[in-house]
Structure formats: structure tokens, C-alpha cells
Amino acid sequence: MHLRNTFETTRRYTRSVRAWISARTEKDVHVVLFILFFAVLLRIPFINYPERTVFDEMIYVNSTIYMIESKTVFEIHPPLARLLFTKAASIVPFHATILPLPLKANASFGDFPYIAVRLFVAFFGVLLPLLLYATGRLSGYMPRIA
Question: How far apart are CA 62 and CA 81, in angstroms?
Fold first, then answer.
């Protein structure tokens, strides 16, 4: 008998939580779709341009290739982003070519799958505005301000 009461209480609580969530997010669907559309529109077109390294991509390319080849890499930053880049690059087969030192911007990628790594970064770039919006909404701001 006690188990049945617990089950009913849990069911009522779950329904009330669902109702609360749907009431709070009813206005947000259009805003989230708007943010998602523009985040994708700003990040995905021309993802393969330029076909040369830009800014610090040459550092990421070399460290990714070193990690794929299981060579020692000294890095002062936390390794999570580098490990994720390595996983994204290892999915696409390519011939590893270390970019020559000293590292220079505007160097050719060779056959490194830079588009896969750029898409990986763009994916998280698309999610970031949604995360900030969700944080604003959960803080109590109106959809327009969040």
C-alpha cells in the first residue's frame, strides 16, 4: 500500500513539473528557433573558407596531429578542447603532416580535415547563445531581455 501512495505522489509531482515547464517555455519556442537560425546562419556558411590556417589554427593542427600520432605534446592549457579536436579529426582519415616550424598563419592545411574541426567548433558556437538565453530565462528575465 505504501508503495502505491509513493507512486501516485511521484506521478502527481511529475505532472506538475511538466505543467510548470510547458507554461514557462511556451513563449520561448519562437525565440529559441530565432536564435538557433541566426547562430547557424552566422557560423556555417563559408566554413571551408579560407583553405589556409587562420589565427591560431596552426597550433591546433599541430597539437592534434601530435596527439593522433601519440607523440608527446607540452601544453599549458587544459586539454579538453585539444582532445575534442583530436577526436573530431580522427574520425576523418587523412595523412598527418606537421606544419613547419616556426608556425605561421596562412599556411596550407595539406589534407588535414580542417572542415571537420571547424564544424565541431561551430557546433559549440551555435549552442553558446542558446545556453546564455537559457541562463537568462532561468534567472527570471523576460524572453526579449534574456
Answer: 14
DSSP assignment of 36-60 equals: HHHHHHHHSTTTT-SSB--TTHHHH
Alpha-helical runs (H) found in the chain:
2-25, 28-43, 57-68, 80-91, 114-138
Q: Which residue has the cell 547557424?
A: 40
What is the pTM assigned to this prediction? 0.61
Q: Which residue has the cell 613547419?
A: 100
> In percent, how much of the chain has pLDDT > 70?
77
pLDDT tens digits, 74-99: 777 788 877 887 877 777 776 666 66
Rounded to whole angstroms, how far apart are CA atoms 80 and 16?
A: 38
CA 22 – CA 112 distance, rounded (Å)? 45
Rounded-to-integer distance, Cα 1 and Cα 68, Å: 58
